[in-house]
Write a structure and sequence with these properties.
The protein is mainly alpha-helical and about 625 residues long. The chain contains 26 helices and nine strands.
Length: about 625
């Protein structure tokens, strides 16, 4: 697993110095090979279900495949409406076609050889694997920029053993989150190579590209751009050339991508939850401000460093505050953030229950294992990074930037937990260096190739990987499955699913064979199973878990989680033909925990076999997907 490394040069103060000969160890081919072997070994069991059953990890992946199918079928590039969701007008999904395009391209290339169905399924395996390989390579390049000599297989193992990788790069994961992680890692590479012109230009490409795809890492980008400004203010970019290259690249790529993503009739529409005039204005304002800063460099080059720093920081602060105030004045609706347009009812009943939107304290309350897998791990990296920075390291300033990026993700997780899932990747260079130094100390003491040295490096990888902490946290503190969401009156399906448990959910093609065989009709189902219905059947659905489909989501929740009379009213309103209910592994135990209590909602009654007069059973009693016909 681990190749022999050169011995450490120890300075008089006992700190580790990494020797010369950059990039020693594994080459690119070996890195790619190890990444592919891990992907194959870890996902071998799930590959079978993807190829034979068309299974995907979660609803967003099914929805992405549906959008790709629509594009291949001739739907307009600018039209992302899902017309079989909430017909006749359809549901506004507002996803960027920039992710659809390469996936559609792979399917189009393979379809003549193997047919569209198999081409789709193989593409869902190939696409996330490509993104994972690129992510590993970029992280390795970051480590190459930070350390002159280290074991280049370490970034591979820390990346593939990252819990975020295990969730976002698994075969079948074709939503946009893995691409956003790759772009975030790319910007970290730009950060540690800021002295190079191509890094400045690359940063200006990455940010508008990421915003065009989604807003997952928007706050990270704002913080990293602030760091670019700090580089200028503190004199690392004395003449402002790096800032100027970044600003020009940012403005140019923003202007090019905007008409690619946005239809001409929507150029002047302002949406807070997706790329629109709001973010076009913000990016151009930032680019203009940084151009002003760069051109003012010659006037803010005082003989004293203190005066220069103060004057540059003052100008940067004035420009930043001015831009923010102007944008908020022009787009006041966005003061509440991307979900400002979501109603209070939808937010309280659904969005606040979605794991991606929860804050850290809520997640810790819902999932006690996160005290170990997140808080414990972050504390470890915090201490490890502080220990490393206390040493006389090469590129210490650049390493401090990576450390700061990780700490920023921890602080942002207090507001929204999902930021730490991205921030974990900033911890990888810290883990690589820590493991390397530990190994070298062991080699100095016990000799290279000795059992203690090899065991020590393996142990350091295990201890510093997020997967180990996730395993221990789950083992020690996880709640029993049947204790989660036992209240059937308020039970909300999780926003995403783990591909390792997809056989326990209704994500297999065989689950929908009965529904697919029935005559054309309109279906109401749980939010998470709705996108799968679009893929495996020709039926239309009421709603999926997408916030712009507000009334549809509320209708689904009211249908299953209020009283039976309300459900009947919604059935008539939507002219339903079928009701589909995915019976999870814990459904039986959950209903049994409520036995003897009077539960009025329809979901409980369907699981208990108590059908109202306006429904009749179509599926077998033990089917995983329960299907009912709606009587006229």
């Amino acid at each position: 697993m681990v190749s022999k490394v050169a011995s450490t040069n120890i300075s008089r103060d006992g700190s580790a110095q990494l020797s010369a000969n950059a990039g020693a160890g594994a080459g690119t081919g070996k890195i790619v090979m190890w990444t592919l072997l891990f992907q194959l070994a870890w996902s071998w069991n799930s590959l079978r279900y993807i190829v034979t059953q068309g299974s995907l990890p979660g609803p967003d992946d099914f929805m992405r495949l549906f959008q790709v199918r629509s594009l291949l079928s001739g739907q307009s590039w600018y039209d992302s409406t899902a017309y079989r969701m909430l017909p006749p007008d359809g549901a506004d999904i507002h996803w960027s076609r920039l992710i659809d395009a390469p996936i559609a391209g792979l399917i189009h290339l393979m379809s003549p050889l193997m047919g569209q169905q198999l081409a789709e399924r193989l593409t869902t395996i190939v696409w996330p694997t490509i993104i994972l390989v690129l992510t590993v390579l970029v992280i390795t390049k970051i480590c190459d920029s930070l350390f002159s000599r280290y074991n280049r297989l370490l970034p591979v193992f820390f990346t593939v053993l990252c819990t975020s990788s295990l969730a976002q790069f698994v075969p079948g994961r074709i939503d946009h989150h893995n691409v956003q992680i790759l772009l975030y890692i790319g910007l970290l590479w730009c950060l540690v190579n800021w002295q190079k012109p191509h890094a400045n230009i690359s940063a200006g490409i990455i940010i508008p590209l990421s915003i065009s795809i989604g807003l997952d890492v928007l706050v990270f980008f704002i913080l990293l751009m602030a760091w670019f400004g700090m580089e200028w203010a503190f004199g690392f970019d004395k003449n402002g050339k790096s800032l100027r290259r970044f600003a020009l690249s940012l403005a140019a790529v923003t202007l090019v991508l905007y008409p690619v993503n946005i239809a001409p009739d929507q150029w002047f529409a302002a949406h807070c939850d997706a790329n629109s005039l709001v973010f076009l204005s913000a990016q151009l304002s930032i680019a203009l401000s940084m151009l002003v800063m760069s051109f003012c460099s010659q006037y803010l080059s005082s003989n004293t460093a203190k005066t220069r720093i103060i004057s540059r920081l003052t100008l940067a602060f004035v420009l930043a505050v001015g831009c923010a105030l102007i944008l908020l004045a022009v787009f006041p609706a966005c003061i509440g953030g991307p979900y400002a347009a979501v109603s209070d009812e939808l937010n309280s009943r659904w969005l606040s229950q979605v794991s991606e939107a929860k804050n850290l304290m809520t997640m810790l309350n819902d999932y006690p294992e996160y005290w170990i897998k997140t808080v414990g791990y972050c504390a470890l990296i915090f201490a490890t990074g502080a220990w490393l920075l206390s040493k006389n390291l090469e590129n210490k300033t650049r390493m401090a930037m990576i450390y700061a990026a990780f700490l920023a993700s921890v602080l942002l997780a207090i507001i929204q937990y999902r930021t730490i899932r991205i921030g974990f990747f900033a911890a990888i260079p810290i883990c690589v260096l820590a493991s390397e130094l530990i190994t070298r100390k062991l080699i100095d003491r016990f000799g290279g190739g000795s059992l203690p040295s090899m065991a020590g490096q393996v142990a350091s990888v295990i201890v510093l990987s997020t997967a180990s902490w996730a395993f221990v946290g789950t083992l020690l503190l996880a709640k029993p499955a049947q204790s989660l969401s036992v209240d059937l009156n308020t039970d909300i399906e999780n926003q995403s699913a783990n591909i390792l448990s997809m056989r326990k959910t209704c994500f297999l093609g065989s689950d929908y064979e009965l529904l697919a065989s029935l005559p054309q009709g309109h279906v109401i189902s749980g939010l998470n199973s709705a996108p799968a219905i679009l893929i495996f059947t020709n039926k239309s659905i009421v709603a999926g878990p997408y916030h712009r489909n507000q009334q549809g989501i509320l209708d689904v929740m009211d249908f299953f989680f209020t009283d039976v009379d309300k459900a009947h009213q919604i059935a008539r309103q939507h002219k339903l033909d079928y009701v589909a209910l995915c019976r999870s592994p814990n459904s039986k135990s959950r209903t049994q925990t409520r036995a003897g209590q009077k539960i009025a909602n329809l979901k409980y009654n369907l699981l208990m076999g108590n059908l109202p007069s306006w429904l009749h059973r179509l599926s077998a009693e033990n089917d995983k997907l329960l299907v009912f016909g709606v009587k006229n």
